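cron nightly-structures :: item 1 of 1
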Amino acid sequence: MKRILTAVAMLGLTSFGLNLSAQQATPSAQDQPAAAQQQQQQPVDAQQSTKSFEGKIKKSGDKLVLQDASTQTAYQLDDQDKAKQFEGQNVKVTASMDASTNTLHVVDIAPSSR
């Protein structure tokens, strides 16, 4: 009986020790610097939120915007240089959108087939 109790106690201590060493070897998200966490999340976030928008590049004040004809929505464009060459044209913009500012973070602009 003593041998069984000793064996159970040894197994328990061994598994406890393995558990502790595994926790120490793998840093938690709290242990990682905030910048490293953001770098790991950015590519995934960018891929998930990038989509296509179609409309016409128009002047709005001193800025160029994408006017979506179907929704009558004007989106601000963060890359005015890319948009400038398409002013007045129907285009397809690949971008991620910042909904709080209605701004498209442009990845690509191409002429639309419409």
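cron nightly-structures :: done
The CA atoms of residues 50 and 96 lie 4 Å apart.
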